[in-house]
Design goal:
By secondary structure, this protein is an alpha/beta fold. The chain has a single domain, classed as NAD(P)-binding Rossmann-like Domain (Rossmann fold, 3-Layer(aba) Sandwich). It contains 8 helices and 7 strands, in the order E-H-E-H-E-H-E-H-E-H-E-H-H-E-H. Helix 5 links the parallel strand 5 and strand 6. Helix 1 crosses helix 7 and helix 3 packs across helix 4.
Length: 273
Amino acid sequence: MGKLENKVAIITGSTKGIGKTIAKRFLEEGAKVVITSSNQHNVDNAVSEFASDKIFGLACNVVNYEEVEHLIQQTVEKFGALDIMINNAGVAEPFKRIVDADLDAWYKPIDVNIKGTYHGCRAALKYFLDQNRQGKVINLAGAGILKNNTPYFSAYGSSKAAIYRMTFALAEEYKNTGIDIMLMNPGLVRTEILSVHNPTPELQKRMDVFDKIQDIFSQSPMVAANLTVKMCSDWGNGKNGKFYDAFSSTKKRLLLFSYPFRKLFNKIDRTAY
């Protein structure tokens, strides 16, 4: 029996990247999984790829609260309940200085990351409370957001810092309800959020440094997925208000120590997820 046998989970932004890997691990552990994207074509492709009767796909723009409520309603109609809400959907603005980027480009991470996470939390909490049901809400932090500045990604950094504060505020509001609200840092993963198109010469210099950082510290999304399974299993019961890091100090030291050897033997994984 899997660690998540017959649990029902919604994972937003789960047709690719970290969210898709979490969905895969949840299926392997026996969960029934709802995958989402704002793009119906991406949802259809992911559903066909998984090819499981425990997968249900639904397009959902997390910026729209009514759509998130509808997502939960459809999940309950399909699988009979909801046990786990993973607020994974996230975007970043183009890698530019703030005055060089379009206003709408800066606004988008604020809308998707903060509002989307808030909507997922609110709708899931309302369901759990109305049904007098225990449940888990997992929000995603960003790598090193509270310890490092995020130049050229100021909207993304600001949104992830806000999610950090939101998560622990809600955990305090709903303690002793049987609902566990937690935060998870997936670490540095090569996803499209890190993609940079047409950088200026100045930014290219910075990107050359960042490329090396990725070579040293990036890791498979499976690390975050395995941690998420643990948080959502019975092990995570009663862990309300906790923060778990897939990029621990031990992991950082291991990646740093192994880098010269991985480079020497051409074993650096540059797979884009």
